[in-house]
From TrEMBL, chains A, B, C, D:
Cofactor names: NAD(+)
Cofactor details (free text): Binds 1 NAD(+) per subunit.
Xref: InterPro entries: Adenosylhomocyst_ase-like_sf (IPR042172), Adenosylhomocysteinase-like (IPR000043), Ado_hCys_hydrolase_NAD-bd (IPR015878), NAD(P)-bd_dom_sf (IPR036291), S-Ado-L-homoCys_hydrolase_CS (IPR020082)
NCBIfam families to which the protein is assigned, alphabetical: ahcY, PRK05476.2-3
The entry's keywords: Hydrolase, NAD, One-carbon metabolism
Species of provenance: Vitrella brassicaformis (strain CCMP3155)
Stretches assigned to the S-adenosyl-L-homocysteine hydrolase NAD binding domain: 231-393
Residues bound to NAD(+): 197-199, 262-267, 283, 339-341, 387, 394
Name of this protein: Adenosylhomocysteinase
E.C. designation(s): 3.13.2.1
Pathway info: Amino-acid biosynthesis; L-homocysteine biosynthesis; L-homocysteine from S-adenosyl-L-homocysteine: step 1/1
Similarity field: Belongs to the adenosylhomocysteinase family.
Top-level taxon: Eukaryota
Enzyme class: hydrolase
Length: 475, 475, 475, 475
């Protein structure tokens, strides 16, 4: 598929080699190719994806393509594209890619628009989304068109101070002037979206609650085989990876504060413990706090450790977790990073605007902010996801779990496009499929699964082949 | 309260000292006494409890009593009573206790009957149950009475080969001849039961599904502050404790097989790893199996390790996990134990009946079964729960979590006895109460809980004071 | 061999069953029986042993006996005898045993005397010692005899306030009056002692430095296969075992202070971490302190954590580690125990003599000392070794390492009694024998040892069969 | 100091920023600057160093320079130079540097020669060596000069097939033709060398044993504060760092084989365990093997796991650890790396020469060797040290321990140049200095060291200020 826009095509060969290595580490996707490839269940289906354009995503893209789909792709983060991965896909023409590392906000939304805009047709059939930006653009587009229909109002970028939303409004304004039905036609065509993250699901649930959701959504984020693997074990891998690549700092013996003890926090805390660090946890939820205690972590308020600790990692999905005031009290060269969600977990704006602040770039994605009193803090990836910014994100194996869920979700959405199974609401994948994803990943680790005999299955009241647990089971 | 029957009153003083020590380790129960004691919300309420009569249970019993209740108690396992705990309660007359270590099956069901039979009244107002035997006796009693009303049939102990059910039928037959309405009057009086275990909840759900449940039930087992603490961390403590007291065997360097990787299995596996053992896991559920892989355990079928491993622990709640055929293949002096639920996890019957088998009692709760070929296996606690049989069960702190849920459940059942909140169905405790239980345990560990500010709470859409997570959250 | 004095012969059968179980866990000793038994290298040799009379020691005793020796034994600690082990040996007459749990100091030294006094001969040929009390009695005896020879002075028990040394002097006084050459004849006969502990080795080195040592000594304590296993992994097992049996306290989430980070402290710290505790370490040696930091422990002074921590364990071999003043500042029901050496690691005398102190015995080996302000501390095993007092000491497997060294040491001392290899000095076992001990324990764990080829051996300059490391290697 | 030859001066600014960050992580070196800088104890002393030219080494170099020394430096590995570090030193002229990443063997030995050759003088006063190449060149130089003096023979590069030694002979031949006394004059001037590694110390000991050592040597490698920190904790950090940067492979759930369980192996094994891998260990030494068992690792022969494991890491210092024959049996994309010493731990030559082998470069320092049957192995850093080749080596903090030992060694050599304390032999640093190095690193970790009181010190027979342990203590 032609039409890609990537930074540097010369990296394509390197990207292809890395994709081939990743394939070995993504047994779920490879098994899906083998199982479903022959029937071509996505033959002719147009899929637009907005999800970090990495080597692993390349394997997802090419899996969808091998199942029959046509694919267009953009990244969901201005820093997260691996240019060699993008180049390899672009060169192979297995999808059209619009993504490069270090996009401006304008470029970012331009890429998202290209990803959603299909030549010679109204748009895509399905969306793969991460964080919900593709879905947001469509919904905002429809809203803008309706408003324009009603009273001729065009979106006004100057109406907002949010620099990102300014770009969105500009894109919508431009589109509206070219085709005032663009987004409505697109929305009508879409059979569904499968969403990768907590944040995206949160947005979808709000839209569903307000009856504003324009197409069905499958919540991939809350699959057990995603949330209990990607979040926990992905971060266990990529947090130390990111910190080490960025700073080369020895974590053994250091005091590390993990803000939040959800799945991401759990993975981060155990990783730091594995490195020999002393781990402190901050929590608002007494249940998670008590779990942290039982795991041998110190549960503290930030003020208790703020001037003692060496590393501070935000994992919450909330905002204002590490404030400028806190950073002013940290010791010299304390390391500050975010592996939660948006960059507002750390008060980057406050830091940038702090009177007398000096920002020294150490190397890409590593900055030292020097306070007027001379002490500095090392901020990773400008407050954005440090595992993506400073390392290469989650490793292939765990992304294979997430992405196999994506593939099964896309298959199920498409297979049921006319059955009425999915309304304009947010759905979990059925537990059988969730278990299937796990099952596809066991052989690569040499794991042997025990089989229930009929007698045992009936004793505990489950089918021999599963699902084995009630929906409420917490794993 | 008079009327107790315990083994040895001379142990009362020792029991009282242990109860006083346990109180310091059960901050949730002590906080409940402090918060609710003054209002006496259970004033005059009759509570019958069937739950391991240990030191920790004594603190639960006396908490209920301090909140105003009258209490009668029996154990839910023939081996699990701590005689000194029973004696201390009996002596203090804070409850009537019918329990001793090493009951026969006849004695066990006699005790259960005494616990449910209140002098000068039809029975109790509420039940605390563990495994569901008290609830079962009432439901079977009602069934027998109705059958008797219909056609005069008396329960026939000889109609079953199950030795335990034989006892149940004998008890019901005896009761029926004295008072043919006993169980129906009792059931009518009961406002609800709070159930402690997976197995008990399973039974309750079946009865509710069949519309046979005679009163409301609160599922304490699935509170996060119970299942994710008692099961995981309680077993992390009590598995090595039981094995070490029973066998004094060094676990470092040994190969240990944990059958099942649910919450109990997770706690057991990490405990064995903490002791320096090499841990193997057997699983039927691919999701749990993949979790075990990610935690660094070897996921294998039993046949792969049967002749190599040193210790085999069943944690499943299912049956026939460790069969006689498997034990025949184990190496000499392999240790076999159960920390799951019923003793049928290990094929004790097969072992006892194996041709040529020699059973050598090493010490109480530790037997060596010697196969005709001369190799023996060490079976703990006769296949029953080894942490109760060979050690003292879960430690006070984690039982405080479970039991504080029991107290809050009993309070909520009683407060809502006339509100219609609870029908004859199975309910979870509201998440606020679940979080409250955790919250009451944090100060004892010196944990500092962070508070959301309003802005953050609204950003993630939760109340400042919680609950903080959706019902589906897995912790 | 007749003549034993033990507490309760009725326990013999139970002891025998435990000894048989222990044999399976002591592969080094069983291999030694198999390798050396046929030649009877200790035929007719008289060995006196002063070492905790436990089940494991029984296997050592019977190994020495099966290699041909006649054996007399006493315990080296008034609390450490396992009466069933003593009874089993006494009943089998495989050695003469003088030991019971809970000896008085007078009884203790009487037992030591009986152990060293052989009917119809001057004494033993060799000694197995633990802590050096048997060696001390002989050396003090010789000193007293020489003084008596010189000026007729008898030892005077009233000359010392040390209650233990008072007993020693009484024993020597009594002996002197019966046979004024007893100890000199005995010392002349002795070919050597093999010593088990740091403390005993320390005493031996002092005597050697002062030219006072009367026979050769082999330092078993500093074998790698002893100190790096018994101290580290033995304590990793027996510390939590002792705490759990004594208190049933949940260690998960608790703050535990380990005083000292030598081998014992290292084993204790990792055990507590494995239980989910938060571990603090106190150290005087900057190298050990830095190791503790690197392992993720908090290195603190006692005053920093004294009022916060839940458990305090002394592991040092030094004195006054946990003072009365410190205990006065601990929180209510803080647990205090010693796994180092003598009971003066904890200021028991200060505690007993504290004005207004109330001592409440909870159960054997567990006392609550209540300060006048009402807060109490739980002291384990009266300040003596808690793993011996509250549990059963190190497990068989690790004792098999220590005791196989003892056997090899006794064999080497005897084989070289006339070669001049050993002078009146303190020797390490040759590294070949140390490696051999390890080698004998690997098959039981299914470990496969790799063999160097000749080319590799010559490349690194070692023999193919070892020893593989220079003497200075730290493991 | 002018005269440097580095690859890219434009990197100097980046290097300087990294050096400044590293200084904060190297508290021992900074404390040495503070303590000794004012007296300028190395004033005018010429030091030549051959040690990986990294950012951390830059801090060492500038510490020596700040204590008064003039410094010339080269790297001791053709791949290990960090060009930005070299550039920063060269630009600041704090030393003359001859080093760049990716030297040819000819260049490598040219750099070593430049490092040792001082303008206008016979050579350096002292050497800092890592692996012994600088010392070797001098000793071989002297040998060649003596032979030449004797019979006029010039070194003959064609006399050897070893490509590296060919270069050495060429250098010596060239030198000899310019100045036939160069190396003898240099050796006469040198007061000593401090050596960083096991391999270098091994060479020095051989020379000392053969009476060929030309100047005193201090063995820094075997300082406790070096070997027990750099080897263990440095590798714990840098092994996962190297693997992750090179391959992005998820280590959780994988089977990793660590060849060797010395200090490096111990650090590597625990790092892999911390990542959630299943760890297998191969060992030749039964003591180390038994330690690995006790730590919960599987001790196996290579053939047992060769076709199952995912990652193979050699840590031995021996050769032929991972042979070509083994690699032929590995599974597809098994990862193979060396963190021991020379690249002959892995049979790189065999691999390169394997009939039909295809070598695919994935990215710098990562190659896939594809066997004729189509399966490939991923070899890191061409079989050289993967933590240096694929990551940035040990982190600053742990290098600060090693390098502070180097500084104290250089100070002690110089202070005793005329005292006779050091002969032409190999010496350990005195334990006081070793403890001092540890002591200087504790404050940065917030560690509080406990002080012995006099009474305690005398009780255990050590000075209050240390040293605290006998020389034989194993830590």
């Amino acid at each position: 598929m032609a039409g890609s826009k990537v930074k540097d095509m010369s990296l394509a060969e390197f990207g292809r080699r890395e994709i081939e290595l990743a394939e070995v580490e993504m047994p779920g996707l490879m098994a899906a190719r083998k199982e479903f490839g022959p029937q071509q269940p996505l033959k002719g289906v147009k899929i637009s994806g907005s999800l970090h354009m990495t080597v692993q995503t390349a394997v997802l893209i090419e899996t969808l393509q091998q199942l029959g789909a046509s694919v267009r792709w953009c990244s969901c983060n201005i820093f997260s594209t691996q240019d060699h991965a993008a180049a390899a896909i672009a060169k192979a023409q297995t999808a059209a890619v619009f993504a490069w590392k270090g996009e401006t906000l304008e470029e970012y939304w331009w890429c998202t628009l290209q990803c959603l805009t299909w030549p010679d047709t109204d748009g895509c059939d399905m969306i793969v989304d991460d964080g919900g930006d593709a879905t947001l653009l469509i919904h905002e587009g429809v809203k803008a068109e309706k408003k324009y229909e009603k009273d001729g109002t065009l979106p006004d970028p100057s109406s907002t101070t949010n620099p990102e939303f300014k770009c969105v409004l500009q894109v919508l304004k431009d589109c509206l002037q070219k085709d005032p039905k663009k987004w409505q036609k697109m929305a009508a065509k879409i059979k569904g979206v499968s969403e990768e993250t907590t944040t995206g699901v949160h947005r979808l649930r709000e839209m569903a609650a307000n009856k504003e959701l324009l197409f069905p959504a499958i919540n991939v984020n809350d699959c057990v085989s995603k949330s209990k693997f990607d979040n926990v074990y992905g971060c266990r891998h990529s947090l130390p990876d990111g910190i080490m690549r960025a700073t080369d700092v020895m974590l053994g013996g250091k005091k590390v504060v993990i803000c939040g003890f959800g799945d991401v926090g759990k993975g981060c805390a155990v990783a730091m413990k594995g490195c020999g660090a002393r781990v402190f946890v901050t929590e608002i939820d007494p249940l998670c706090a008590l779990q942290a205690c039982m795991e041998g972590y110190h549960v503290v308020k930030m003020e208790t450790v703020i001037s003692d600790a060496d590393v501070f990692i935000s994992t919450t999905g909330n905002k204002d977790i590490i404030t400028c005031e806190m950073m002013a009290k940290m010791k010299n060269n304390a390391i500050v990073g975010n592996i939660g969600h948006f960059d507002n977990e750390i008060d980057m704006a406050g830091l940038e605007g702090y009177p007398g602040m000096k920002k020294v770039n150490i190397k890409p994605q590593v900055d030292r902010f020097v306070f007027p009193d001379g002490h500095g803090v090392i901020v990773l990836a400008e407050g954005r996801l440090l595992n993506l910014g400073c390392a290469t994100g989650h490793p292939s194996f765990v992304m294979s779990c997430s992405f196999t869920n994506q593939v099964l979700a896309q298959l199920d959405l498409w297979a049921n496009k006319d059955t009425g199974k999915y309304q304009n609401d947010v759905y979990l994948l059925p537990k059988e499929l969730d278990e299937k994803v796990a099952r596809l990943h066991l052989p690569a680790l040499g794991a042997e699964l025990t089989e229930l005999n009929k007698d045992q299955a009936s004793y505990i009241g489950v089918p021999v082949g599963g699902p084995y647990k009630p929906a409420s089971y917490r794993y």
